[in-house]
């Protein structure tokens, strides 16, 4: 049986430990294929075109699951697996793994993206504590910058981090309902709520508040932004990022989690708990019995625990005991992910057609990269809307029907 996913390096080794546990339980022979830098969507498209799909693939976007379901590539889960998904996952995760009322996916790995990581010593020197709302975050940022060091390290060179900033701010400022409307293109990207979010983002990430100013941000990668916050070339007090920032801190700095480096939830500006996150959903692309066995295993807390205990994985499976996680920060991130319940929202860019949400040279990433240097909210909103219109029209044309299409008009 062949399994395709995005993971390489240490993440690949940890997932292979999960597959080894499955093989021990069932006697199945499993071959893992990493999509590498090409990405799961590209590699999977090539395999489908050749007529040799993997038995199981772990997809990084609900939008990709939707497209594969529309095109008839996905195999339905057996009833007992559907029952396990309904018992062990909240409704929001069930919905994200479904299309047209049919459950196709098992969410194995999740990410809590609504986190800010901070240098404990920098906060102590400036006499500030983690803020609990957006007004507090703006004040803390000003105080940290005035105390001698920029508040944030921003990695615009990896522009997906800018989409994460926008999504957290938009969810807090506009609320879950409007987030859903924008995610489904039921309102335009020129809507006043988008303009407001862009203006708040521009004030928060002003040149004086970020390491190296706008020029430095445009050159800085994600890993560099973490290292500039916690490594020897210290240059910022905070960095925005998901729970997997912990792994970058551990592999590239001498900072000790919970002592030198800590994290807090993205400051609340709404009346209900909300979290932006991502994840990888396992689906079957062949009718093999082994594929269904693996999906059944991935839906168990035992499978999640194999990786979670090693670090670097959050699970949306409510039956996984939080004590499995290796440190307090990860446990807190997992608890926030689960406690959000109906307030959880998937990464907005991953819900979009790939040409709008997933490309570095176009769509959301391109528009927000330009926004860092030219923070013109109306012009940026217009570029976003034009790109969204084009991407949704292309998706509609490719599908040959209106299945899965969500135009705002």
Q: Report how far apart the termini are.
A: 44 Å
Count the beta strands.
11
Q: Structural class, please?
A: alpha/beta
Order of helices and strands: EHEHEHHHEEEEHHHHHHEHEEHHHEHHH
| Count, helices | 18
User: How would you describe the oligomerization state of the chains in this entry?
Assistant: single chain
Give the DSSP E fraction (strand runs of 2 or more residues). 5-15%
Radius of gyration: 21 Å
The pLDDT mean sits at 93
Helical percentage: 40-55%
In the predicted model, the low-confidence regions spanning at least 5 consecutive residues are 402-409
Main β-sheet, in a few words?
Answer: 6 strands, mixed
Shape: globular
If you had to describe this structure to a student in words, what would you say it looks like?
- The protein is of the alpha/beta class and 409 residues long.
- Helices cover 50% and strands 12% of the residues.
- It contains 18 helices and 11 strands.
- The strands form 3 sheets. Strands 1, 2, 3, 6, 10 and 11 form a 6-stranded mixed β-sheet that branches. A 3-stranded antiparallel β-sheet has the order 8-7-9.
- A hairpin with a 2-residue loop joins strand 4 (98-99) and strand 5 (102-103).
- The radius of gyration is 21 Å and the shape is globular.
- Residues 402-409 have low confidence and may be disordered.
